[in-house]
Amino acid sequence: MTEDHKQLLAVFEMQVRYLMALCDKQEQKINELNQRLTVKDSELQQSIEMIRELKARYDNLLTARIVSVNEEEAKDAKRRLSKLVREVDKCIALLNE
Questions:
Q1: Under the phi-then-psi rule, with left for phi > 0, alpha for psi from -120 to 50, and beta for the rest, what region is 25?
Q2: What is the pTM of this model?
């Protein structure tokens, strides 16, 4: 081998090592990004589950509010009806005198 061939071979070997190092670096970066993606996916799934739970709780609160309002209205209606019945009873008692 001539000196030129040895020099070219040395340059080629250096470039191959550089490319291999670059490849290793990129592989590490890919692995790191994959781990971060896995963590983010997990966080996203937890957030979605939390949103579902909060939505269910919100719907339950709305239902409870509607039921409590209806119960309160029903109590008011019973009170008014009782008052009217008492007035009618008083009127009947006055007519019977």
A1: alpha
A2: 0.55
| HSE-up (13 A, CA, CB side) for residue 19 | 6
DSSP, collapsed to helix, strand or coil, labels residue 1 as: coil
Token digits of residue 29? 């970066």
pLDDT in tens, 12-29: 999 999 999 999 999 999
* Structural element, H or E, at residue 76: helix 3-96
Render the burial of 55-82: b for 16+ CB within 10 Å, e for the rest.
eeeeeeeeeeeeeeeeeeeeeeeeeeee
Alpha-carbon 74 to chain mean position: 37
Phi, psi of 2, deg, nearest 5: -85, 170
